[in-house]
Design goal:
Blueprint lengths: L6 E7 L16 H5 L7 E7 L10 H16 L5 E5 L5
Length: 89
Amino acid sequence: MGDRVSNRVLLIATGDTMAQRPSVSQVATGKDLLTHVGPVAAEVVAEDVLAEPSWDTSVATMLAIARRVHAALTEDGFDGVVVTHGVDN
């Protein structure tokens, strides 16, 4: 099993409501979002894949995200993937 001591998790940030910053015109990056999370028992790698409104997310974009998740788990050695996205209520 090697000497890896923690799980590796990929955080795929897609912007939208979850990444909105009050009084700032740009969205938070994946690394920015991680600053709001307490200690975790894993190595978390943030990757920003897009920043578009959820209502405008195309099927092609959804497939690209799904392919990235698949590659992270089957080729890149990640143990888990979290995709952040949000919508307005």
